[in-house]
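Here is this case:
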Amino acid sequence: MGDMEKMEPKQVLDDLEDRIRTIGVLTSGGDAPGMNAAIRAVVRTALSYDLKVRGIRKGYHGLLKEEIIDLSARDVSDTIQRGGTFLQTARCKSMRTTEGQQKAAAICKKYGIDALVVIGGDGSFAGAQKLANYGVKTIGLPGTIDLDIACTEYTIGFDTAVNTAMEAIDKVRDTSTSHERCSIIEVMGRDAGYLALWCGIANGAERILLPEEKKNFDEEALIKDILENKRRGKKNYIIINAEGVGDTINLAKRIEQATGIETRATILGHMQRGGSPTCKDRVYASTMGAMAVELLMQGKYNRVVGYQAGQYVDFDINEALSMKKKISAHQYEISKLLAL
């Protein structure tokens, strides 16, 4: 982990002037609320050190297409409150190939980009790791609504997404109670169930279906529990289903057929990615964006910024990518206890 107290950034800048003059910034993979706040912080912090900043549109795909623009302080005005990413983002299969990685590094050199700040998830960091191998100094900022990056307890966008989902689920419960229905609400999370788990606890769901627990899913036991709740006089039954478990619409049909209880499926989908970021996402993303530039000014690069135990920290990019993250078993047990 990096130590931000060892040296004054301004002092180190004098030693690095011949090496870092221009910083590039891109957003990659799925968009997340708060990405604009991070871009803004990178730009304005870099400009305070008299560095040039170049924005790369559409992630690595845009880098390979040379969609590169200069960014000024004014260019990032009135962006902090906007969801999504004004630089846009895209998936890029070419960055998984040696040819694509070499071309991306050459384009960075062509445009004088000495260091690159990458805002995204593990896949985006893997691209940054490859660029580092070709001499591009990189800093990764965790930007994903899935909260699935192992080196950090916080990822840009999760707080907004989970609050968006929570508010939508509250509304579904209102109508579910009015009609004495069972409701299955699918939230995002293809491989990680953090959104589902947090919503399940926050919304008081009766059941939470996680990708991590998919192999243990007992549909017959779920149906028995729904019927038992009905016998006890409960007027609704909420199931939070993660995208990675899926089959939401068919599951609703099977439950209705087996129980005789009207059952509705709601898939929240990409609405969870949108919306104005929460205060937490704005502040944390801004702090991480500024920290990315400060690390570069201290001669520290090929790092990933994270947040642990109340502190902003940084890890070697290879170390960060080697870490594994699992759903908290304790938190999952609590969710089941509170649903009794």
The longest helix spans residues 158-179.
